[in-house]
Amino acid sequence: MRIGIDSGGTFTDFAVLHDDGRLESFKLRSSPASPASVILAGIARAVPARTRADLVHGSTVATNALLERKGAKTAFVTTRGFEDLIAIGRQNRPELYNLTPFPARPLVAPDMCFGVDERILFDGAIERPLQPGNLAERLAGAESVAICLLHSYQNDAHERALLEALRGSGAYVCASCDVSPEFREFERASTTVINAYVGPLMDRYLGELEAGCRWPVAIMQSNGGLLTAGEARRNAVRTILSGPAGGIVGGVEIARLAGFKKALTFDMGGTSTDVALAGQEPRLTTEARIESFPVRVPMLDIHTVGAGGGSLAYVDAGGSLRVGPQSAGAVPGPACYGVGEGATVTDAHVVLGRIAADQLVGGEMHLDPARAEAAVARIGAQLGLDPVAAAAAIIRVADSNMERAIRGVSVERGEDPRDFPLVAFGGGGGLHACELAAELGVTTVIVPRLAGALSALGMLLADRTRDYSIGALGATDLEARFRNLEKQAAKDVRGAELHRFADVRYAGQSYELTIPAGGDFHRAHQQVYGYSDPHRATETVTLRVRAVVAVPRPSLKIPRRQAGAPGSRKVWIAGRWRKVPAGPRDAFPAKPQPGPLLVTDYGSTTLVPAGWTMTKDAAGSLILNRDNRPQYNS
């Protein structure tokens, strides 16, 4: 057996691939206090006695620790005179017209930033030898230490010496030469600090998980590949977008099975919504940011907004309705779960009849519609709206937040969203997909059969990968550097297929493009920026090697669930109450079904408005076409 596990803010999803090729999924309520206990309970439920299982896990532990500032007490060690590096950053202004911006709270306190006597020049030459002095004594009390010395991407001798000196200190110690040995001091320092900040938590968490499991656990990383648990402990920063990465891998495969060569993925979970644009392979970036912190490791190009089913609605000081980014989470959860008081997007759907009391998680979880209506009514009272109008307004605001995110990965990157099918998944993706598609001009929406657990399923589709990089600015021995990277990759990931890439730019530019080694940089520059200059000199800044061990792909043989004919439900849609056909996906016939209708699956719900037609493909995905016009398959 193989089991994909996506630990989210509200639910933990399990996708189970049996040895006979069958796929099934189930959900358990997440436990922020002890996420490992929920995972172990799910494994016990899924795996019969005396059966071996391979586990692939996407974790939000590192993400949540970073966003909630609940990481380890971290010290930062750098070249003397550069102690304020991470506080100064790039001095960019994210809010251009805000005259009194509130600075982001750094992950390392000023009194925990230490300088050491040493100096390596831009070409790797040692100008001043390392003299650490009493550094170990000064670091007393730190749980974790991040080392980032000036120009160590050209010569890591001093960082290696500090690693050796601090090996027995009892703290979690990491250096930029291992985490991100790349050009640009601030981005390299930020990435190393994040790794140190979340590393001890991931180390303890994975230790607890491995102690309770009978089998090894693979960890989904942010680049769409897998790491061993041991590698994830040392490279915790590579798991920052672990869960969402699985969703993109799964979304690309679902689009491929439906006959599309590219996809716009839309994953609406309980806490957030993740969107991404992908061709035949998901797109990678090395310029990702988590809040205000750059993360200089290869990651899938994902845009995340705080708009999920558990996002809280509130009225701000100016009297405007807002939704998110604050979330009710798993505890207390939306008001309809029976404990929380705040109105959420899920509560709004309950008030509008789109989620029934006995529908969630296949009826295993009973909802309280009266409590949901009371919570929404409190928001409505502040706006002068009745509960139904307030619920509809909450949905519209959430849609607006998610639409901006989709435009951010498409229109703002020079891509037309109308050229892509929208692959909608997560518990709430299908409830919002058609309305968002209509606003964006998208004419095809795909909702997978296991939409509520597609991120967990995507983890079963991911290959084992490991990325390596080395600075190359001004270097002439590029082939030798490539071979050194490949030698390390072949040692770490046995049997891997190795792929070379390079970060290249025009001489004098500030930023570069990652292209296959030996690829046409001018053509790539033309595609991204709309112009190129084949006569202008180029320079290579960073060399990259990706090691890939392919994992056998499951056939997505998902058993049909027993279902009779669809019933009906009274739903608020298009500004009025309508009685529409409603039932599980297998209750609807294979022939085209015109909207409006409601599809109620085990872990998700899909709303098909009027003007849309629903069909099914061979994998059981719902194909929703607007005005009966199929999406152009480009």
Descriptive report:
The protein is α+β, with helices and mostly antiparallel strands and 634 residues long. Among the domains are: 74-202, no CATH class; 251-307 and 401-457, Nucleotidyltransferase, domain 5, CATH 3.30.420.40; 311-397, no CATH class; 464-549, Dna Ligase, domain 1 (2-Layer Sandwich). It has 16 helices and 33 strands. The strands form 8 sheets. An 8-stranded mixed beta sheet has the order 18-13-12-21-22-33-32-29, with helices on both faces. It has a 6-stranded mixed beta sheet with strand order 3-2-1-4-10-11, sandwiched between helices. The protein has a 5-stranded mixed beta sheet with strand order 7-6-5-8-9. The longest helix is centred in the N-terminal third of the chain and has 28 residues, at 185-212. The two termini are 36 Å apart.
Summarize the structure.
The protein is an alpha+beta fold and 634 residues long. It is built from 16 helices and 33 strands.
Give me the count of strands: 33
User: Low-confidence stretches at least 5 residues in length (pLDDT < 50)?
Assistant: 630-634
Helix percentage range: 25-40%
| Rg value | 25 Å
Looking at how many chains there are and whether they match, the oligomeric state comes to single chain
Percentage of residues in DSSP E strands: 25-35%
Count helical runs.
Answer: 16
- Note the overall shape: globular
Structural class: alpha+beta
Query: What is the overall pLDDT average?
Result: 89
- Spatially, the strands of the biggest sheet line up as 18-13-12-21-22-33-32-29
Sheet of most strands: 8 strands, mixed
From the N-terminal CA to the C-terminal CA, the straight-line distance is 36 Å
